[in-house]
Design a protein that fits this description.
This protein is mostly beta strands. It is built from 1 helix and 14 strands. The radius of gyration is 18 Å and the shape is elongated.
């Protein structure tokens, strides 16, 4: 257990020193638990990650803080998104890209947007209708590249 804590502290120290130079807007933290599960957190610029009283606290900057006992953590993994893009084409916007939990769609011409999301092997994995700037939940999709067809336009996104 002491070895795990030392590894976690090393990773956090490395993270604290490198992030300011990366100018990351969003940090993705994956917490692998000894029981085999994994929890993922998106931490915004105003979020925090810290240890206190044998717990790891994660404040993502949007929701209530999460706490995880250090003894249940097997591994922490960090990924940095240097920036997010909006994909714009002929009156449409999809954002953020890359995305991890949600995708927003905007169309100048339509208040309702019919969307279909296709995996890189061509299978349709998600479809629905959303209003402009309404969140489309994609957190259950595996990481990878996807094609998103909105009304009659097609866009490429990356799911983290």
């Amino acid at each position: 257990m002491l070895k795990n804590i030392k590894v976690i502290l090393f990773i956090l120290t490395f993270w604290a020193l490198i992030v300011p130079f990366c100018r990351a807007q969003t940090t993705i933290v994956d917490v692998r638990l000894h029981g085999g599960g994994t929890q993922s957190f998106e931490i915004a610029d105003n979020g925090k990650l810290y240890f206190q009283n044998d717990y790891l606290f994660i404040e993502d900057g949007l929701n209530l803080p999460y706490s995880i006992p250090v003894s249940s953590i097997q591994k922490l993994t960090f990924a940095y998104i240097a920036g997010t893009q909006e994909i714009e084409a002929a009156g449409y916007k999809l954002y953020p890209n890359p995305a991890s939990s949600f995708l927003k769609i905007f169309s100048q011409d339509n208040d309702l947007n019919h969307y279909q999301i296709f995996s890189s092997d061509g299978r349709m994995v998600l479809k629905g209708i959303c209003r402009n700037d309404e969140s489309v939940d994609i957190h259950t999709l595996p990481r990878g590249l996807y094609l998103v067809k909105v009304n009659d336009k097609t866009f490429k996104i990356t799911k983290l």
